[in-house]
TrEMBL record:
InterPro entries cross-referenced by the UniProt entry: Asparaginase_II
Protein name: Asparaginase
Superkingdom field: Bacteria
Pfam family, one: Asparaginase_II
Lineage: Bacteria, Bacillati, Actinomycetota, Actinomycetes, Pseudonocardiales
Length: 326
């Protein structure tokens, strides 16, 4: 598993360069771990996986008694765009547990999708938990508590039985000891792991037996990528570009993905920028052997000058041949 770095900045490598009119304008550093392919930086670095951890959390909730299928299970693992279907889906999860949206304790916010946010404002609605991108996860957490007979009012407490069950499952799937417990942007506990551990967890989910908790999460993400993100979200575009892929994005430039045969990747961008992520993910998947025009298009991040493309974000991911991983 490798020794974990004491700082996320230690030993970081170049993930991508930003080229404008033939000139390197800026550089994004970070760490990339793969199962079956190249590495960048130090994959053993301990970090906060942010929302990329949601498929692991969803599998833990299924193991604790949650019973969701299809698009609602994808929503439980989502950082959704806040479209009407997402908000209504979160309400459906809660209604199945005889709860209303008032039980949600995630941070009030506007929808992530700009058009949905504009419509929300135009309706005169204030920021609300159900519109925030993590409402599916929080609704599923509450439904899990009801199914297991646990208190719902304290579900965000790291010592709550729900969060302890999630913590144990994070350790089981990543193979890492949880060294840090933080508060995520939505208010739920966030458990640390290594970049390599996150890749291992996604490899396990992607290869899980059909019908198992991990297999059910994988099937839901594959079948309903628009519920995991939204039509315009990069994670949804990448999922649509690579059939069979399981993937999840996270704040601060985090992303994880795995193919049905267990080849997997996880990355964190050191400066927290989301900009280079699609380009780096596409390059890492190519290094793992994936070839498709749709993936190339999803991974293309243009640099604009006066509204025209004058450059691009160029990934610096070595090929599998370069690293001897082929």
């Amino acid at each position: 598993m490798g020794e974990a770095s004491s700082s996320v900045a230690t030993g970081a490598g170049v993930l991508a360069t930003v080229v404008r009119s033939g000139v390197v304008e800026s550089v994004h550093l970070g760490h990339l771990a793969t199962v079956g392919g190249p590495q960048v930086g130090r994959p053993g670095t301990v970090f906060l996986p942010r929302s990329s951890l949601k498929p692991v959390q969803a599998a833990a909730m299924l193991r604790a008694g949650l019973d969701l299928d299809d698009e609602l299970l994808a929503l439980a693992a989502a950082s959704h765009a806040g479209l009407p279907m997402h908000r209504e889906g979160a309400a459906r999860i809660l209604a199945g547990a005889w709860l209303g949206t008032g039980a949600l304790q995630n941070t009030p916010d506007l929808p992530l999708d700009p058009d949905a946010a504009a419509a929300w404002r135009a309706s005169g609605s204030p920021p609300e938990p159900v519109a925030q991108n993590c409402s599916g996860k929080h609704a599923a957490m509450l439904a899990t508590c009801v199914a297991a007979g646990w208190d719902t009012a304290s579900y965000r407490d790291p010592e709550h039985p729900l969060q302890q069950a999630i913590r144990r499952h994070v350790e089981a799937l990543t193979g890492d000891e949880v060294r840090h417990v933080a508060v995520d942007g939505c208010g739920a506990p966030l458990f640390s792991c290594t970049v390599a551990g996150l890749a291992r967890a996604f490899s396990t989910i992607a290869t899980a037996e059909p019908g198992s908790p991990e297999g059910r999460v994988a099937a839901a993400i594959r079948a309903y990528p628009e519920w995991l993100g939204g039509p315009a979200r990069p994670v949804t575009r990448i999922l649509r570009a690579v059939p069979g892929l399981v993937a999840k994005d996270g704040a601060e430039g985090v992303f994880a993905a795995a193919l049905p045969d267990g080849r997997a990747l996880a990355l964190t961008v050191l400066d927290g920028a989301a900009r280079p992520v699609p380009a780096v993910v596409a390059a890492a998947l190519r290094a793992l052997g994936v070839r498709s025009a749709e993936l190339d298009a999803a991974g293309h991040v243009p640099v604009l000058g006066h509204g025209a493309e004058v450059g691009a974000v160029r990934p610096a991911v070595p090929s599998a041949v370069d690293t001897g991983a082929a």
